[in-house]
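U., I forgot to send this yesterday:
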Amino acid sequence: MSISGDDQNDMVIFPNPNNGRTMRFSFGGSVNATNATIEFMAMNGSIVVHRAVRLEYGATSFTLDLDGDLSNGIYLARVRMGERTHIQRVVVQE
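Result:
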């Protein structure tokens, strides 16, 4: 699921399922922001990981190192960039 004003800015997270160490976030269009906030929410709604990343204006993807901060489970990844918010389900399994 993606919440944005433009279908060309859909987000894809890969690999998914993931091992909880490194994730790549890719967007259908260029990113028109220089900062992003990424939150991983457990299925009960609690935020278990919160990261702020610096983006290159106009980029179409970025990589996030999680260093094993997510244990096995299903999460919602919420990415906020400027006025846009994207949400996608992520499965972590080692």
